[in-house]
Design brief:
This protein is of the alpha/beta class. The protein has helices at 25-40, 61-67, 93-98, 109-114, 119-131, 148-162, 167-170, 191-206, 244-264; strands at residues 13-18, 50-55, 74-77, 103-106, 135-140, 174-177, 215-218, 234-237.
Length: 267
């Protein structure tokens, strides 16, 4: 299994999927078997220019780690606690690392809205995850449709808060840009809008030496979107990839994208 030490990289495209809480245990394992088959059918993934990752529910993690042992799939977790110790019902980053998890999703809009996780809690979790050797997949995004420039400024402030202003911590993140208004929508945000937000965000990050920080898009992402985007480091998929075949289609798009970049230079 790919380890967290290899992440992140500016020369890599990331294609991932979370199951959230849509699947039961047996269904999750059956789906994961299909996902591994999609990945195994694409030996070009072994080159490492496209990194696939999967984020199932907590109870599935040990079985998922075993099923993915000989696969380039990276295993992620949907959340983590901010420390070991007396935190009933939480899962510590150190235990996730012990289970073979390589990255952990932090700050998703649903956690912020329904579980009252604010910037302070997100920052605590980011620090704990980094300390445990995990790569934080930091979820950021504007709550309502805005101008690309305003959205980028809000997202930049979310990233700054998550690392408590310590930009050396930010260099170890993968950013999942997910406009809250696009999560669960019939269609993703438009490719033009996403590309402009990411371009403006990269301008702000570049002032802190982070122009190459991986920024992937999520929010009703599905096949056909990636080739339309500019400056984006991959896709974070949800329900559209609960059909494993759709995950394979996006992998094909990413592999084609990365091959074109090798042959022709950056796209």
């Amino acid at each position: 299994m790919r380890q967290a030490a290899s992440l992140p990289s500016p020369d890599v495209l990331y294609v991932g999927v979370s199951t959230k809480m849509y699947m039961g245990y047996a269904q999750s394992l059956a789906w994961l078997e299909q996902l591994v088959a999609e990945v195994d059918a694409r030996p070009a993934l072994a080159a490492g220019r496209v990194v696939p990752f999967v984020i199932p529910s907590f109870p599935v993690l040990p079985a998922a780690a075993a099923a993915m042992a000989d696969s380039p799939l990276l295993l992620g977790a949907q959340n983590c606690g901010w420390a070991d110790g007396p935190w009933t019902g939480e899962v510590s980053p150190s235990m996730l690392a012990e289970l073979g998890v390589g990255l952990v999703e932090i700050g998703h809009a649903e956690r912020r809205r329904h579980f009252a996780e604010d910037d302070r809690v997100v920052a605590l979790k980011v620090r704990a995850a980094v300390h445990a050797g995990l790569t934080p997949l930091l979820c950021v995004g504007e709550p309502e449709l805005s101008t690309p420039e305003a959205a980028a400024e809000l997202v930049f402030r979310q990233i700054r808060a998550a690392v408590s202003g310590d930009w050396s911590v930010a260099s170890g993140l993968i950013i999942a840009y997910e406009p809250v208004w696009a999560i669960g929508a019939p269609e993703p945000a438009s490719a033009a809008y996403v590309s402009r937000v990411v371009a403006a965000l990269r301008d702000s990050l570049g002032q802190h030496g982070l122009v190459d920080l991986p920024v992937i898009y999520g929010g009703s992402a599905k096949p056909g979107l990636l080739p339309q985007l500019s400056g984006v480091s991959g896709l974070f998929l949800g329900r559209f990839a609960h059909n494993a075949r759709n995950f394979g289609l996006v992998l094909d798009e990413a592999l084609s994208f990365s091959t074109a970049e090798v042959l022709n230079g950056p796209l």
